[in-house]
Fold Glycine cleavage system H protein.
Amino acid sequence: MSLPKDLLYTEEHEWVKADDGSYIIGITDFAQDQLGDIVFVELPEVGDTVTKGDSIGSIESVKTVSDFYAPVTGKVVAVNETLEDEPELINSNPYDTGWILKLTEVEEADVTALLSSDDYEKGLD
C-alpha cells in the first residue's frame, strides 16, 4: 500500500496536501482498494463552503457507494473535473491525478488535528 509521508490523513481515509496556501484533498490508497473499481464520483461545487466531517460528495464503485467527507473546513476553489470522465484515476493514482478537490480558507486547527502518515498507518492495523 502506498502512503506518502508528506501528506496528512484522516481516520476516514482521506488525505490532505498543503499546496501554496490551499489544500488538495483525495482518498487514500487503502480507501480506493477497499472500494474496488471506481465508476463514478459526485463532486462538490466550486464556491461551496464545506465543514469538517460533513459529507461533500460520493464515490461509487462496482461494490458500493461511499460518502466522501470533508477532512477540514474550507472553501472549494477547484474540483478534479477529469474524474467525471475518468473516475478510475482514483484507483490508479489516488495521490496525484486522482485528487478530488482543492480548498482555501481552511481552518488551521483542522489541519493540525490531522494524522501523520505514521499515525494513520498505525490505525490501519
